[in-house]
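Dear Dr. H.,

I hope your travels went smoothly. While you were away I took the liberty of generating a structure for the chain from your last submission, since the lab meeting agenda had it listed for discussion. I wanted you to have the full record in hand beforehand rather than looking at slides cold. The sequence, exactly as received, is reproduced here:
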Amino acid sequence: MEIKADEEIRVDNYLTSHLDETRSQIKKQIKDGNITVNGESVKSGYVLKKGDIIDVDIKKEDLKVEPENMDLDIVYEDEDVIVVNKANGVVVHPAPGNYHGTLVNGLLYHTNLSDVNGEVRPGIVHRIDAYTTGLLMIAKNNKAHEILSRELHDKKTTRKYIALVWGVIKNDSGTIDAPIGRSLNDRKKMSVIAGGKRAVTHFKVLKRYREVTLIELRLETGRTHQIRVHMDYINHPVVNDPVYGTRKLIDNSGQCLHASILGFTHPKTGKFMEFSSDIPKEFKEIIKKFE
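The corresponding predicted structure, in token form, is as follows:
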């Protein structure tokens, strides 16, 4: 893949903000010679010039993802699609340092999955964070995967979330349209940043409490940590979020964010299907503290 640099910045920082890779992973690829600038090897600290051509040929660590027997909350399944209600704390797919106990490990034990995304992310059409609970659609074959991915890209998939956020939101509804990219201050975080990818989140208030607000959110785009970043950006960070916002954590159960509604057109029948999921007990227990 070739990328034409459009700003003067360190090559490792530039690629971290433009690719779905961590800075440490980018630096390793540069060191291994898998990333070059104008056909030549460079160091991570090389400062790009506008017009530099970056050639990226990332070599992933060979991973053998093993099937593992685990409890799965399957909401719907047929020969093409599975809808899973993901539990709290479960990582969606393996990654360096976390090869076992993921949703993919459990799904591979249960059934065959598409291989569109390779060995590490088989069947995964979209993701949610480890401590975000709720509904995910999984493709069992390549044709279904391609159709579902296209519908997601075309913004035809319905994805609604329930979140508890700090502060009392005065407006009954609203839209946050702010670009998201890798944070310049902390490369492990995402941030609203000039030059980021467009991100749009719609919200409406469900219930107001004295210190917090329960809201429903609808994603128009699907950027990494989008809801968490956007709500922090408008000074209403998600309650119990260990990464975004500065409020004290209530417990270690993760952010109060749940993928509650998922709707999509079935890749074979063409029928629109919609599923719903109630918020988990950890979320409900935190709400009770504010009632």
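Two observations you may find useful: The two ends are 53 Å apart (CA to CA). The mean pLDDT is 91.

With kind regards,
E. W.
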